[in-house]
Write a structure and sequence with these properties.
The structure holds 2 protein chains of 2 kinds. Chain A is an all-beta fold. Chain A is built from no helices and 12 strands. In chain A, the strands form 3 sheets. In chain A, strands 2, 5, 6, 10, 11 and 12 form a 6-stranded mixed β-sheet that branches. A 4-stranded antiparallel β-sheet of chain A has the order 3-9-8-7, with no helix packed on it. The chains are: A mainly beta, B mainly beta.
């Protein structure tokens, strides 16, 4: 079945450091890929997405490129801020049960950014 | 503003009791989902519904039940058959071809 493997945390960085969170996937067909962010005690918010190979999703300084050849969707940010401290989830969606798109999540990576 | 409302934010129940978590959306989305989140486990799908009066089991449906009588509402009942119900529960909805939108979640604690 489909699966997502992402870098285990926790990750602790200083403000303005470079961030990479690795994500690889296994899926049949051509899934869409997502990064969601979860701030403490809240639900998930979509951070960025990519729907086909070589697409780059970007938002709030974060970027990730859909690499079909390496089945990866690594999240990067050039200069993190304290406000980026959160849990980050990599996810893919594929067709399940007809036309419904089911999300499969990685286990999440906790990022802490210190001033 | 459009969005998803989950209530209550915190819920406590005694062992052996059933409890119902509310999820309401005013986004006019057809599909709705319930996930369970445990520390270090990511999110796991409990049930989903693509249209009113229809729903399917997800990966961990045992001990849970749902209904979908209205487009905007998808309540989840945690029954006494669920062996380890303490968790953070997230509801989501989506339109075809779009990403899932999530509610703020309900934290259920069994005493």
């Amino acid at each position: 079945g489909d699966s997502v493997t992402q870098m285990e945390g926790p990750v602790t960085l200083s403000e303005e450091a470079f961030l990479t969170i690795n994500c690889t996937y296994t899926a049949t067909g051509y899934p869409s890929l997502f990064w969601y962010v979860q701030y403490p005690g809240e639900g998930l918010q979509l951070l960025l997405k990519a729907t086909k190979a070589d697409d780059k999703g970007s938002n709030k300084g974060f970027e990730a490129t859909y690499r079909k050849e390496t089945t990866s969707f690594h999240l990067e940010k050039g200069s993190v801020q304290v406000s980026d401290s959160a849990v980050y989830f990599c996810a893919l969606s594929a067709i399940s049960g007809g036309s419904n798109y089911k999300l499969t999540f990685g286990k999440g990576t906790l990022l802490t950014v210190n001033p | 503003d459009g969005g998803i409302t989950q209530s209550p934010k915190y819920l406590f129940r005694k062992e052996g009791q059933n409890v119902t978590l509310s999820c309401e959306q005013n986004l006019n989305h057809d599909a709705m989902y319930w996930y369970r989140q445990d520390p270090g486990q990511g999110l796991r799908l409990i049930y989903y519904s693509q249209i009113v009066n229809d729903f399917q089991k997800g990966d961990i449906a045992e001990g849970y039940s749902v209904s979908r009588e209205k487009k905007e509402s998808f309540p989840l009942t945690v029954t006494s058959a669920q062996k380890n119900p303490t968790a953070f529960y997230l509801c989501a909805s989506k339109d075809p071809g779009r990403e899932q939108f999530f509610g703020p979640g309900t934290r259920l604690t069994v005493l």
